[in-house]
Amino acid sequence: MFGGMAWMLHGNRCVVIWHDSLVVRCGPTDWADHLKKKHAREMDIKGRSMKGWLLVDAPAIAPPARLKAWLEISPAFVATLPRK
C-alpha cells in the first residue's frame, strides 16, 4: 500500500516505514489529537488525505522512548478492527 516495510496485526496494517518516516495507524477519533504532536502530520498521498493515518517524521522517533510511544498507538486501535 505505501511501498515500505509494514507490520501487521490480525491482517490489518499497524505501522509502516516509508522513506525516512513512520506511518502510524490510529483511530479516526484520536487522529486530530495526534496531529497536534510535534513532527506528526497528516498522511497525504497524491493530494488525498488518509484520515486515521499519521506521518511521523524522524526527529519524533529517534529516542527509543518516543518511538515506543508512537508504536503503542497502532495496536491499540487495530486490535478493535475485524480480523482479515
Describe this structure in words.
- The protein is of the alpha+beta class and 84 residues long.
- The protein has one domain (5-78).
- The protein is 27% helix and 38% strand.
- It has 2 helices and 5 strands; from the N terminus they run E-E-E-H-E-E-H.
- It has helices at residues 28-35, 64-78; strands spanning 5-9, 12-18, 21-25, 40-45, 48-56.
- The chain has a 5-stranded antiparallel β-sheet.
- A hairpin with a 2-residue loop joins strand 1 and strand 2.
- The longest helix is centred in the C-terminal third of the chain and has 15 residues, at 64-78.
- It starts with a strand and ends in a 6-residue tail after the last helix.
- Dominant shape: globular
Distance between the termini: 16 Å
Kindly provide the radius of gyration, computed on alpha-carbon positions and rounded to a whole number of angstroms: 12 Å
Helix-and-strand structural type: alpha+beta
**What's the SSE pattern?**
EEEHEEH
Task: Note the main sheet.
Answer: 5 strands, antiparallel
Poorly predicted parts: none
Percent strand: 35-45%
**Strands, total number:** 5
Mean pLDDT: 89
The percent range for helix content is 25-40%
Work out the helix count: 2
Number of separate domains: 1
Main β-sheet, spatial strand arrangement: 1-2-3-5-4
